[in-house]
Amino acid sequence: MAHIIVLGNEKGGSGKSTTAMHIATALARMGHTVGALDLDLRQRSFHRYIENRQNTIAARDLDVACPLLMELPQISPEQLGEGENIYDRRLSAAVADLEGRCDFIVIDCPGSHTRLSQVAHSLADTLVTPMNDSFVDFDLLARVDPETYEIRGPSVYSEMVWHARQLRAKAGLNPIDWIVVRNRLGAQQMHNKRKVGGALDRLASRIGFRVGTGFSERVIFRELFPTGMTLLDLRELGVERLNISNLAARQEVRDLMACLNLPGVEIGF
Questions:
Q1: Residue 268 included in any domain
Q2: What is the pLDDT of residues 212-221, one digit of tens each?
Q3: How crowded is residue 163: how many other Cβ atoms within 10 Å of its Cβ?
């Protein structure tokens, strides 16, 4: 069966779709067959990113790997069983279609709580939660004391992940490997950065996730979106020599993939 990687975060602007695209593309470039689903039915950033990639590959006749983009199938009410949720059925049908022909399925969830997102979390073998490195985003995971920064309790999102873990345990499935990825880290060891890091480490042991380093704030991430390309595709775009910033960003992708520790994946870039 395909290994399912879910990108989840109930706050927007954390670089979730960019992270999803780089994970999916890295796996595809390493020779794995990768399916892709975007559950944000309104913004569809991950979906559009892959469409842009498909268009660039066709227009420039590039020989580069691309994830298999899947739409959620339309289901008529007559096809539903009694009490069955239509979104559950659409997602399960899409995953079932991809599972038989993919090594990995990357699912990007919307930046809000939806039924589709809730179900996707219960399907996750690996859950990646990107967050901006601030206490504004930390609030996604837990409530903290404003004076001492001690953790008061888990957030509604953490409770949703806990519920997804319970559902998987009841179904006899392997536990979710949850990785919280710190995006947009500042270049300097600022006081706030250390506070966020300390709070994350304390919370990680308390509710069961691993902490990984994601992507720094770089203009190139925004520039690549219209072409659908990633930091791993710069040579195909005609960039013969990578500058220091590009090399550092490429290393960030490598470090993220190593942190995920996905089954059968050897980092080859």
A1: no
A2: 988 988 888 8
A3: 13
